[in-house]
Amino acid sequence: MKIAVKNFDDKVLREIELPESVFAYPFNEHLIHEVVVGILAARRAGTHKTKDRSEVSGSGKKLFRQKGTGRARTGDIRNPKWRHGGTVHGPQPRSYANALSAREKRNALKSALSQKLAESRIVVLDSLALSSHKTKDLISRLGRLGIEGKALLVDVHDNRELALAARNNRALKTVDALAVNVYDVVDRPYLVLSESALGRLVEVLAK
Hints:
This protein is an alpha/beta fold. The chain has helices at residues 20-23, 29-42, 102-118, 135-144, 160-166, 182-187, 195-205, and strands at residues 2-6, 12-17, 122-125, 151-154, 172-175, 190-194. Helix 2 (29-42) crosses helix 3 (102-118) and helix 4 (135-144) crosses helix 5. The protein is elongated and about 95 Å long.
């Protein structure tokens, strides 16, 4: 299994071999769905909070005597049935992260990458180094490669020019090779990698 290595002028420089253990992995839609849901759930802040009767302000004294008033018996003013009383069974801070194993995440990523390759949506460049940090220059270069719209750009994390050029366009996202996740891969039609970033990604996934 081979893929072409190009430059920004869409010229094929050479071909490199891709491991079938990574890029010929069976498509598993259910596993990808589970991992994507897990990634999005883990991003939730989970900081919602309401006060129960022990936390709202107000006296704990019984409002009136138990019997003889003609009214229903009640306790203090912080009782949930009163206005400004505590909330019953309200939301409390929690984590929404679900337990997914590293193996599941790795296999889901291999499945998503294999599907991208089958759809010819992966572009490998000899280098993603840019001489300018201007967004329009980056978009123009990607246009020469036939890439329009949303794309995930994968290179080393210290490629400052690439990060600056991509950050003004919400359709583009840059990540380090070791930070590629399933959600970013399936969320964007195109995956653009530098040859070195591809090597690092394969090294991790082929274990």
